[in-house]
UniProtKB/TrEMBL annotation:
This is AbiEi antitoxin C-terminal domain-containing protein. It comes from Halanaerobium congolense.
Length: 296
């Protein structure tokens, strides 16, 4: 009597697992096409009945804890199940999902010791393709007011693991400005440096733990930050909005030197601007022409 595909997989269990151990590293993402290719081309699997499908092999590997499933939510209405090999590495595994992505925002704040809080989620960034310069854009006060009267838009591209979620951000192309490599839990991983991190969270406070946490990060960075580098990054990225007013406010509240504040104050301060989105009854800084939460 011929054996079923499941019985045959049990018989060659050790050999199957060895094949995957040789091909993948712990924490790698194993795609459907990877398994399909192995099933079709690897001689080991030729002993399995022809009715054996990729999902059969996946079920076998999940059952034996070789593959760990997780949910990859690409949008509100689109998600898929993906698999990590042997383990979920909190920082490396999310980076494996997108080419040239790097750790950023609240995750970078934490790994650079700029906050004592341990973020529940991981933030990674992948830059968009290059787009035309913003210099010809005619910025109006009314458009600023309208944009910041609403809640900050957040990504729906989220990867859901058992103990945490990873937010897959898509940022403006900067040619990986300020992206460095550091060792994180035994892995050398790409991450934004301190100046780029502070710039990113100042622009998207919802990805930095909120304005209170960001102000704390500026305070904690005081002995390490290069203001000249921070301003160089700001100029190179060429944002439409006057984020130098946000940076100036944070630096002032964190107790930076007046000479450092002057570098930002000398930049054109033409518009009323906002520290955060959707604020109720905010206070106003005359120096930076900036609305900010009253409690700050």
């Amino acid at each position: 009597m011929s054996r079923s595909r499941f019985e045959m997989m049990k018989i060659i269990k050790k050999e199957i697992i060895n094949e995957f151990d040789e091909k993948f590293n712990r924490g790698d993402i194993v795609l459907f096409k990877d398994i399909n290719n192995m099933l079709k081309t690897n001689k080991l699997f030729s002993v399995l009945p022809n009715v054996t499908r990729v999902k059969d092999l996946i079920s076998f590997l999940v059952e034996n804890k070789v593959l760990i499933p997780f949910k990859h939510q690409i949008s509100k209405n689109q998600s898929t199940t993906k698999y990590a090999f042997r383990e979920i590495h909190k920082y490396k595994t999310p980076l494996k999902l997108r080419k040239s992505s790097f750790l950023s925002h609240y995750t970078a704040m934490y790994l650079h010791n700029l906050t004592e809080n341990v973020p529940k989620n991981i933030y990674t960034n992948q830059e968009q393709s290059k787009k035309p310069s913003n210099k010809s854009y005619d910025l109006q006060q009314s458009s600023i007011d309208k944009a910041f009267s609403k809640p900050m838009r957040k990504t729906n591209h989220i990867v859901l693991f058992d103990n945490f979620s990873a937010y897959m951000l898509t940022g403006k192309n900067t040619e990986r400005l300020g992206v460095i490599e550091i060792e994180v839990e035994g892995e050398v991983l790409p991450i934004t440096d301190i100046e780029r991190t502070l710039l990113d969270v100042s622009i998207r406070p919802g990805y930095g733990g909120g304005v209170e946490q960001i102000l704390e990060a500026y305070t904690n960075a005081k002995s390490e930050i290069s203001i000249n580098r921070l301003l160089a990054y700001l100029r190179k990225v060429d944002y439409i909005y006057p984020y130098h007013q946000v940076l100036g406010f944070y630096l002032e509240r964190a107790g930076y030197k007046e000479s450092q504040l002057k570098l930002l104050e000398e930049m054109n301060i033409e518009y009323n601007f906002y520290l955060n989105y959707n604020m109720e009854n905010p206070s106003f800084s005359e120096r930076w022409k900036l609305y900010y939460p009253q409690h700050l």
